[in-house]
Amino acid sequence: MTSDAVTPVLAHVDAHLDESLERLMGLLRLQSISTDPAFKAACDKTADWLVEELAEMGFDAAKHPTTGHPMVVAHDDEGEGFHVLFYGHYDVQPVDPLNLWNRDPFDPAVEETPAGKVIRGRGAADDKGQLMTFVEACRAWMAVHGTLPIKVSMFFEGEEESGSPSLIPYMEAYGEDLKADIALICDTGMFDPQTPAITTALRGLAKLELVITGPNKDLHSGMFGGAARNPAHVLSRILADLHDEDGACTLEGFYDGVPELSNAQKAQWENLGFDADGFLGGVGLSVPAGEKGRSVLEMVWSRPTCEVNGMTSGYTGAGFKTVLPSKASAKVSFRLVGTQDPQAVLKAFEAHVAARIPKDCSFQLLDTEGSPATTMEIDHPAFEAARQALSDEWPKPAAFIGCGGSIPIAGYFQKLLGMDSMLIGFGNDDDQIHSPNEKYDLTSYHKGIRSWVRVLDALSEI
Amino acid sequence: MTSDAVTPVLAHVDAHLDESLERLMGLLRLQSISTDPAFKAACDKTADWLVEELAEMGFDAAKHPTTGHPMVVAHDDEGEGFHVLFYGHYDVQPVDPLNLWNRDPFDPAVEETPAGKVIRGRGAADDKGQLMTFVEACRAWMAVHGTLPIKVSMFFEGEEESGSPSLIPYMEAYGEDLKADIALICDTGMFDPQTPAITTALRGLAKLELVITGPNKDLHSGMFGGAARNPAHVLSRILADLHDEDGACTLEGFYDGVPELSNAQKAQWENLGFDADGFLGGVGLSVPAGEKGRSVLEMVWSRPTCEVNGMTSGYTGAGFKTVLPSKASAKVSFRLVGTQDPQAVLKAFEAHVAARIPKDCSFQLLDTEGSPATTMEIDHPAFEAARQALSDEWPKPAAFIGCGGSIPIAGYFQKLLGMDSMLIGFGNDDDQIHSPNEKYDLTSYHKGIRSWVRVLDALSEI
């Protein structure tokens, strides 16, 4: 069902897709890697870019400094009635290992692939391509009708990929400026390339870096090997012991607050016809690695995880160096569900390490950070309106789904501003976000813009 | 007991120590890192440097090309009777992590330390400082007496720190040119700073790099975490399982061929008064990490070891990246004793990995390499002559000792040229070879030169 107001806007989107794409390319060229201080100026420039684009469209847009990377906030109050706050992030993940990219990650291009056209570049999917679907939908509405059908505010941060250190302080100070009837967050995926989705369950995240020190300097393994404690061995034991033989995490109390799926939810997920073999097969795997007796969908949507994201010790360059390393370190993260307490998980990890650290080694936990899981309230009429609008655009009807990723902002909007969030995104499982050769399907971009045109219209009717 | 011939040579050494030191500094400035192809030209230049020095002294010296770095061979046949071949290596270990050095590793200097003057720089102890003790002893003999007291050949390789790939082919082709009554090898240490040593037992070495592949690319841990196999977890399990709770290596058949110390040997080592607490305490440790029930001296001299020298997986840069890595790898080496078979150890490691690798992960073993342990025959009269000469130079009498390091050349000399080796070196435990801030005590250099003067004289008497 497509209203009279929507039809010419969709036609405008189709006719001007190349310009929308050009603008996205401009945004993708900006090297806004938030975690690396070397790219601080690039992050700032990216915020400026957004402010200029939004101001040119007619938004009241401004860059707001923080102790880290700036926030971008924009308002258009000319629409009537319902008020949405759209959230996205303009920062991106680091790009290494660079040699695995098929092109410069910051020189984006549309590439032909066997599965169709894709936009290749760092941030294409996470989150620049996604946030631009909403910006371009607004642009088309304004171009055709002069004004938007509802009140729209936008809120873009530049620290999402580096733990959002400025987010809570900013929201505590300037929350009033961000309040709306509902938040829209575009940082999630489709259920599959034909099936759009509204994500209603998000896992939380706890993370840390563990550094173990043994000898006070790197040693010659021939001279000291056998007698001196090797921290690489200690770290291996600690990491190996994080999981039991059935794939469960062994941390004390880890599963406290992990809810069992209701039978109704289980049935709904089973009816989705999720292709577990295809999901794993697409990345070269065949055997689910998680807890025995759980489906793959449960593993990634409703069960907590414990993963080593990186580890290093000793000599890792070319050739061989028979060194006995002084230090060994690992970056470890946990995806949390239900009411799992991130601080309790971090404490349990610390106890796990302390119980396995030999008398003459020491350890540090660095950069510890945690945010709990979030479950959306879907009673708000915006959910059904958006589900209908998405179903009108895509081949298959939209689904309410879970998501393995962590998007703490939804929890913060609820807690700090009393505002529900609706998560709609157009990513696909093979987008390779956080990896080399990140891409966003051209279809995701094009139909993503069209989807928001429909959602804006649908929200004006509730 | 110092002979009439020796006294003026020792006086010459003392009077010209500064020039000897200047020459060593020149050699230390050459960046001969053999394992890194970027330093190939520097290795070649270092060989040229040695040829020039030796030719200037009167040796018939030449550089011999190999498929890797060149060999340097020099002869002086003017002496009478006994003929020694002196072996050393002119290549050095890589220098990273560079930020832990207190100076540019290739800009050497004499530094004052609380324990006395040291020569600081990469290769100062391993092996440029050591090989120069012999070269400078010869120079002093020739300066004072015109000729050396015995026949001397020298043989320097440039690949010792990168597995000596050209050594065996070279010795097979040109072995006749290297044959002598005995080989002298200067790449080992003192028993302690007061006690010189002749090393009579060397451990062998087996090494490899293990690379485990799980998913075919790095994944987003939120999207795939829990369901996708994480190769960092697999690697941790494999490495953790290499040792049991008592510190013994768990590889099948690993201790085959490991001899027990004779009671006599055990008694001799106990009498050395080795300070195990000081040995470990010097590197910030207090608890021996090796097999339960073994002394620290056994651990480092007579027991085999299994050590992780390096490992890496996933994101190891600054900040955090919630990646689920595609690969995880480790460099592992084994020190071997007795008649342990390096190939059997490598095979046992492969079986250990194969038994722990999940169905949908794969693994590769790269750069596998092995050499067996060596025990010297000390019946040759040169051993007693040298022991006496060393005892004359140093505060305490010389000891016959074991060594944790691996110096495969001694085994090759025996096997390919039927030639016994005598290992005499002046390094100390705190020389930080293979580590940042490598040094060689000025005393090691000065008294090392004087020691060789005495040994040359002693060998002319047998």
CATH domain topology of the largest domain in chain A: Aminopeptidase
Q: Tell me the CATH superfamily of the largest domain in chain A.
A: Zn peptidases
Query: Which CATH first-tier class of the largest domain in chain A would you pick?
Result: Alpha Beta
Largest interface: pair, residues per side: A-B, 100 and 98 residues
Quaternary arrangement of the chains shown? homodimer
Can you characterise this structure?
The structure is a homodimer of 462-residue chains. Chain A has 462 residues and is of the alpha+beta class. The first copy, chain A, has two domains: 6-202 and 373-460, 3-Layer(aba) Sandwich (Aminopeptidase), CATH 3.40.630.10; 204-258 and 304-370, Alpha-Beta Plaits (2-Layer Sandwich), CATH 3.30.70.360. Chain A has 14 helices and 18 strands. The first copy, chain A, has helices spanning 6-15, 17-28, 40-57, 128-145, 167-174, 221-224, 231-240, 263-271, 276-281, 296-301, 342-356, 381-393, 408-417, 442-460, and strands spanning 60-64, 71-76, 83-89, 109-113, 116-120, 151-157, 182-185, 197-202, 204-213, 219-220, 305-314, 323-324, 327-336, 362-371, 374-375, 399-403, 421-424, 439-441. In chain A, strands 1, 2, 3, 6, 7, 8, 15, 16 and 17 form a nine-stranded mixed β-sheet that branches. A four-stranded antiparallel β-sheet of chain A has the order 11-13-9-14, covered by helices on one side. In chain A, strands 4-5-18 form a three-stranded antiparallel β-sheet. Chain A starts with 5 loop residues before the first helix and ends with a helix. Chains A and B meet through β9, β10, α6, α7 and α9 of A and β9, β10, α6, α7 and α9 of B.
